[in-house]
Amino acid sequence: xxxxxxxxxxxxxxxxxxxxxxxxxxxxxxxxxxxxxxxxxxxxxxxxxxxxxxxxxxxxxxxxxxxxxxxxxxxxxxxxxxxxxxxxxxxxxxxxxxxxxxxxxxxxxxxxxxxxxxxxxxxxxxxxxxxxxxxxxxxxxxxxxxxxxxxxxxxxxxxxxxxxxxxxxxxxxxxxxxxxxxxxxxxxxxxxxxxxxxxxxxxxxxxxxxxxxxxxxxxxxxxxxxxxxxxxxxxxxxxxxxxxxxxxxxxxxxxxxxxxxxxxxxxxxxxxxxxxxxxxxxxxxxxxxxxxxxxxxx
Length: 298
Ligand SMILES: C[S@@+](CC[C@H](N)C(=O)[O-])C[C@H]1O[C@@H](n2cnc3c(N)ncnc32)[C@H](O)[C@@H]1O
What we know:
Rossmann fold, 7-stranded mixed beta sheet
């Protein structure tokens, strides 16, 4: 074995010690070069998706332009009245939800790494005459380009599996909250990464303790519309425990955590739509969504 095994090639100190001191110097930009490479591939995937999503029935931009609020009751209940509050929406896609918060009276900033999505968000805001600030940046680089603190930081529906490092993510969240500010996440439950329906039955298909990302070669997205160019995507597994621990380690106080047996769309054939418009598995065997509200102590 090389005498430098497990050691930094530049200074020969143990690699973990070097990482620990780097973490202090660069608290936000922690993903490794390999993870960054994978996120670049994901950015391309999201560029392809954004163009299709903008014209999809799923997002129904036409009714949004006529005044529809694209937010769901869950995030509105969690955050309450946002009038006059400054709000940062992380991973905002092409800004429909961000602009819905603006319509409810918040002073909004949306951030996303997809150029196509952010260009569309800016032109949507201009077309609708809504005041909003949109920033194109990888989430981990946002502290380099945005120097503000917000009353509210929010992120929703399909965000965490695109992020390789939850601890660094939580530090970014905390960085943008003013003391006393509120963070809210409403997310697809990570269970969906580990289960599937096989012959009409829900089965566990992967280990919840898995740590390496899934690599998918695909032409699909979750909306209607044409097939995408073939491309690769990477998704990282996470758990509710790791989410909560990352937020606590970043200095936030957890106010509430809810695991819900409902979903915003049908992910497997046996799901049925209930009167409230949400989808459920018969008998509610598992949580399908998770919400968490945390605050930055004063
Ligand atoms: C499923 S969408 C979020 C859904 C959004 N709430 C909606 O329905 O419009 C995930 C978003 O995360 C963004 N994203 C993925 N990885 C990112 C990263 N590392 N930095 C910033 N944005 C990222 C994608 O561009 C995409 O817009």
